[in-house]
Amino acid sequence: MKNKGKLLAVPGLLWLGIFFVIPLLFVVILAFSQRGVYGEIIYTFTLENFSRFFEPLYIQIFFESLIVAVATTLICLLLGYPLAYMITRVNPKWQNAWLLIVMLPFWINFLVRSYAWVIILRSQGLVNTFLQSIGLIDQPLTLLYTPGAVLLGMVYALLPFIILPIYVSLEQLDRKKLEAAYDLGASPLKAFWHVTLPLSMPGVISGSILVFVSSLGMFVVPDIMGGAKSALFGNIIQNQFLSARDWPFGSALSMVVVLFSIILIFLYYRATQSQEKLEGRG
Amino acid sequence: MKTIIHLDSVEKSFGDHVVIPAFSLSIQEGEFITLLGPSGCGKTTLMRMISGFEEPTSGHIYLDGNDVTSIPPYQRDMNMVFQHYALFPHMTVADNILFGLKMKKVPQSEQKQRLEEVLHFTQLTEYQKRKPQQLSGGQQQRVAIARAIINNPRVLLLDEPLGALDYQLRKNLQVELKNIQRNLGITFIYVTHDQDEAMSMSDRIAVVHQGKIEQIGTPEEIYYKPSSLFVATFIGENNIMKINSDLIGVRPEKISLHKADAQAPHHKQYGVIEDIVFLGNIYKVSVRAEDDIVITAHLYEKSTWYKGERVGVAWAKEDEVILR
């Protein structure tokens, strides 16, 4: 019986093995290989690709990407938390409708949605034509191909990933605990600060990590909405695999992102575990 | 005695549905009053109106003579012990207990002193650094009580505070709660569906049924002089009989059995013993009487009664209660 149950996991394990573990191993091997003169791969063992990462150009782009990722996460948090909070407070029969609205963008291809932003933001786009028609501006504003546009696209793409975990942790919160806080003299604001916010931290943290890790590797948004000027780390990696044909270096840069993400996730688990230990659940 | 809480024709309805028809009630200072009723009878809604979590649809609530009908719970000078304690899981026992004082910005030194007193009083001193989840049910219950009484409230509301605990612990905590109430002189408003709990602790019991207070009085009054059929059957066991045009109730322990042929002028009914059950402290004897009603008698001795025996059933006139 026990073994039969385990058999059910085989298709999923096979899938993960073939399409996740093996490619990942391939990336690891590539990262220590060398690029030939014509872009072919020479299998040796070298750390050269990693030492290239520390060249000022790449370090600078890495830190810029880091800043964009932090900014994206913070903006998503500031927009997402109140929205998730609001969804838990509306009439239960509207909650599913709101969650549907949050997830609705996933029904449309991400690339298509990103190009939709181009149509909205370009110089003859919706925003500019509208502002010109009401006479607010004479010349079209430069909205597209700016750092602001990249940030907007990132937040737009990743907002649902922070709303859902926060919604879940707020939904699980026992209302009686809030009532207890009111009863003990806490105003609604104080009760939020001392009870709701700390108890929803697991959702805040896991949502933030999802958004942060995703935005660090994002290349579609900066490509389409940032133009040629603003390359982020994801674009550099993409370039190595496509135009530069330097797969080993691209793999090494991917490894850097993966390692960085693993460290973050590890820190997250340590933080939540110590939290659970404090709460006596650990 | 001084009135501390006065409810003046308070009514609550949700939409068109009247949950609590208008009623008035005065609660005395230092009193232990219990709202007793089956689940869904409206006693919790009643308590939530007193604590401020629900606003009555009409009527007024006075605390110490001041109208507090629309005052939010965080500005009312009373505290509540919640049904499942509602302790804060992310805070230690000490922080849980101090929460109220911190919200009121009581000076640090006073906070520390009052914390020590309350911890000592509730025997929680050694657990103060723990999180609520690391405590047993009874200890969590004491934290909930400590968290409320540290604020020196005028009134303490308790919503089925012992409901989640097992029998023995409940019995012990009943005594503890009663002692706390006596020692601190706080007015207790206690909500429960457990009549034993209500009987053993309360100064007065208000029996609530379908949103209405059916009867209010001391435990003895409620037990011996129930004013309605509901109270007579809800509290303890009762024999309900129709004598002439009156509906009367007689407690099983007030019933005596006699040999059918014995000359006893006070025999009220005759019947046949249908069942004799040993309950530990008493024998419960069921007698099927002439009008096909079953009269239950609680006897301390089994004597020679046997199943199928024809007996005379008797009770004293003063043990009859005429019900509405």
The helix tally of chain A amounts to 14
Q: What spatial form of chain B do the alpha-carbon principal axes imply?
A: elongated
Structural class of chain A: mainly alpha
Order the strands across the largest sheet of chain A as they lie in space: 1-2
Q: How many independent structural domains of chain A?
A: 1
- Count of helix runs of chain B: 8
- What is the molecular shape of chain A? globular
Total beta-strand segments of chain A: 2
Radius of gyration of chain A: 23 Å
| Second-tier CATH architecture of the largest domain in chain B | 3-Layer(aba) Sandwich
State the CATH architecture of chain A: Orthogonal Bundle
Q: What's the CATH C level of chain A?
A: Mainly Alpha
**Separation, N- and C-terminal Cα atoms of chain B:** 31 Å
**Major beta-sheet overview of chain A:** 2 strands, antiparallel
Class by helix and strand content of chain B?
alpha+beta
CATH topology of chain A: MetI-like fold
Let me know the average pLDDT of chain B.
Answer: 90
CATH-defined topology of the largest domain in chain B? Rossmann fold
What does this structure look like?
The complex is a heterodimer of chains A (282) and B (324). Chain A has 282 residues and is mostly helical. Chain A has one domain (52-279): MetI-like fold (Orthogonal Bundle), CATH 1.10.3720. Chain A has 14 helices and two strands. Chain A has helices spanning 2-7, 10-31, 48-53, 56-89, 92-103, 110-121, 126-133, 147-171, 175-183, 188-199, 201-217, 220-226, 233-241, 247-279; strands spanning 34-35, 41-42. Chain A has a two-stranded antiparallel sheet with strand order 1-2. Mean pLDDT of chain A is 88; it is low at 278-282. Chain B has 324 residues and is of the alpha+beta class. Chain B has two domains: 3-230, 3-Layer(aba) Sandwich (Rossmann fold), CATH 3.40.50.300; 242-323, Beta Barrel (OB fold (Dihydrolipoamide Acetyltransferase, E2P)). Helix content of chain B is 26%, strand content 34%. Chain B has helices at residues 43-51, 93-103, 108-121, 137-149, 167-184, 195-201, 219-224, 229-234, and strands spanning 3-14, 17-28, 32-36, 58-63, 66-67, 78-81, 155-159, 187-192, 204-209, 212-217, 239-243, 246-250, 256-259, 267-278, 283-289, 294-299, 310-314, 321-323. A six-stranded mixed sheet of chain B has the order 6-7-8-3-9-10, sandwiched between helices. In chain B, strands 13-17-14-15-16 form a five-stranded antiparallel sheet, with no helix packed on it. Chain B starts with a strand and ends with a strand.
